[in-house]
Design goal:
single chain; about 425 residues; TIM Barrel; disordered N terminus; Pept_M19; Membrane dipeptidase
Length: about 425
């Protein structure tokens, strides 16, 4: 027979609104869809637009196109992705500029009625009020700065508002978590002194520090060095799926303690332990082929080869599900708190996403699932974009403080 204490606890659980179940209405879901500013902090469709794809046309092999964004998405951080292959012969900056241009020219300028270029949190809010999608940029791969703070400043001036410190490759100043590495570049045990200078300069500029893709020690070095909150633009929880690029509970807690936010990646291996375990043998088989594709110089040939490789991998393993996304969000919230979780889909940058969430027009299904899980409308608004806006405001404020302090120091030094 259960004790009185257990009976009392059970009664509290039944009475608690968190655990109360109610039938979620279409009206509730529609209201959140209308009011929330859904911000996706990582989307790789730019790797297609830079090759000529028109984002306003159906994306039959990916997740991102304008018809499926409109009415659902508030802001998009388009990836200024610079592959490791561009490091050779110092082509990284050239590629970064091409990727920046595709956002400004092929997305925003080509579709001014639907997109507006944005660089601040307030501009995202303003775009939402105008029923437009705010287009922002984040560099993926710190090697894009070619070891130059001057280039970093140039990218900020062009509108870049976060930088992922590494990609799969360890660069000259930061260690990567990736499996595809150039062994000619030595490991640094985290960030080098110059790498810490990069983080400090990002703080001064008002550019968010992104630790998705970095080695665990690099994460802790960046967290210690940064005087502003940092983000994980497209990661998930290692306790749910021990994919190496996911974050441990200790990392999530540390990130939250300094005001940052982790953005949940929709890649199947990020989401599901079962998918990750079953995909590892296939990934090992495909890795050599992937590296060979990266060596192809002709853009059209490389694109065709990559599509063929992705097609050969598709359908062999059941994908992750909507429930896996909810489980990842729920774990992140329990570990880091409701104020430190967001969305970073990695759409068009991963080979597999849940079929129930394979584009932005499917987000009402996630909204419904989170409501059914016990999350409030305000909770969901925080996850969808409110938390990221808070971090952006904090990063912008820290930049103002640093510039003000520098100005005062200069003034007194001149006396």
């Amino acid at each position: 027979m259960p004790s009185l204490t257990r009976l009392a606890a059970a009664a509290l659980l039944i009475a608690s609104p968190v655990f109360a179940q109610h039938k979620v209405t279409d009206a509730e879901v529609a209201k959140i869809t209308r009011e929330a500013i859904l911000i996706d902090t990582h989307n790789d469709v730019t790797s297609r637009t830079v090759e000529g794809y028109d984002i306003a046309t159906p994306n039959k092999s990916g997740q991102t196109d304008l018809p499926r964004m409109k009415g659902y998405l508030g802001a998009e951080f388009f990836a200024v992705y610079v592959g490791a292959e561009y490091v050779k012969d110092n082509h990284a900056a050239n590629r970064a500029l091409e990727m920046i241009d595709t956002v400004k020219t092929d997305v925003v300028a080509a579709h001014p009625n639907d997109f507006v270029f944005a660089t601040t949190a307030d501009e995202i809010i303003a775009a939402h009020k105008e029923h437009k999608i705010a287009a922002l940029m984040g560099i993926e791969g710190g090697h894009a700065i070619e070891d130059s703070l001057r280039l970093l400043r140039d990218y900020y001036a062009l509108g870049v508002r976060y930088m992922t410190l590494t990609h799969f490759n360890t660069n000259h100043w930061a260690d990567s978590q990736g499996d595809v590495e150039d062994t000619s570049v030595p490991k640094h045990n985290g960030l080098t002194p110059f790498g810490k200078d990069v983080v400090r300069e990002m703080n001064r500029l008002g550019m968010m520090v992104d630790i998705s893709h970095v080695a665990d020690k690099t994460f802790y070095d960046a967290l210690e060095t940064s005087s502003a909150p940092i983000i994980a633009s497209h990661s998930a929880c290692r306790a749910v799926s021990n994919f190496t690029r996911n974050m441990t509970d200790e990392m999530i807690k540390a990130l939250a303690a300094k005001g940052g936010t982790m953005q949940i990646n929709f890649g199947c291996d990020f989401l599901s332990q079962d998918y990750y375990d079953k995909s590892k043998p296939l990934m090992n088989e495909m890795r050599a082929k992937y590296l060979e594709v990266l060596k192809i110089q002709d853009a059209e040939q490389k694109k065709a080869a990559m599509e063929a490789l992705e097609a050969s991998m598709g359908g062999k393993i059941p994908p992750a599900t909507l429930a896996d996304v909810v489980a990842q969000i729920d774990h992140a919230v329990k570990v880091g708190g409701i104020d430190h979780v967001g969305i970073g889909t990695d759409f068009d940058g991963v080979g597999c996403v849940p079929k129930e969430l394979d584009s932005y027009d499917k987000f009402p299904a996630l909204t419904r699932a989170l409501l059914e899980k016990g999350y409030s409308a305000e909770d969901i608004k925080k996850i969808y974009g409110g938390n990221l806006l808070r971090v952006m405001h904090a990063v912008e404020q820290r930049a103002r403080e640093l510039k003000s302090t520098a100005a005062i120091e200069t003034k007194y030094a001149e006396k």
